[in-house]
Design goal:
disordered C terminus, elongated, alpha+beta, three-stranded antiparallel beta sheet, about 160 residues, 4 helices
Length: about 160
């Protein structure tokens, strides 16, 4: 698997403001939700991160969040849980804890348990990421940063020439 890290730098001073992790060209699921604005700690400049909070995501983006998590879960389950079940089976048969006749049942039950455990961890982390995003987007700091980056037009900008 090819992994890249895109560094987000401040346009004013060049300091690192954040980063995005990509696996085989795709954003990692852990970085798909985040604040749209980041404040540079060096010069206090607001930098657009290219991410969106959960509230700002459209239905397709929210669906993709869960689809990508499910795809990684299936792949992880196959390789990680399958590997764990296979190794434990080899150890159990070698040490005569189980006989060859019960080997398939042992592998399937170990694989099933490991998959349930991995699923619970992925679900917990996904929900925690969504809760953190909702909390961030409702914070006063996020609202103030957004207002600072997108100031309201002044009254004079709305006045048009009466001769038009």
């Amino acid at each position: 698997m090819h992994t890249e890290v895109d560094i987000l730098s401040c346009p004013t001073c060049g300091a690192e403001v954040g980063h995005t992790i990509r696996h085989n060209g795709f954003k990692a699921a852990a970085t798909s939700i985040g604040p749209p604005l980041l404040r540079c700690t060096s010069c206090d400049t607001l930098v657009r991160s290219g991410q969106k909070e959960w509230e700002q995501q459209n239905a397709a983006s929210k669906a993709w969040f869960f689809i990508s998590r499910t795809a990684w879960l299936i792949a992880g389950s196959f390789f990680v849980c399958g590997g764990i079940a296979g190794v434990l089976n080899l150890i159990a048969v070698d040490r005569k804890w189980i006989d060859d006749a019960n080997s398939t049942t042992f592998i399937l039950s170990t694989y099933g348990f490991c998959t349930l455990l991995l699923s619970a961890i992925v679900l917990r982390n996904s929900l925690a990421e969504i809760r953190a995003s909702l909390k961030r987007s409702q914070s006063d700091e996020a609202r103030n940063m957004w207002r600072e980056a997108n100031p309201l037009p002044t009254a004079t900008e709305f006045v048009t020439d009466a001769n038009d």
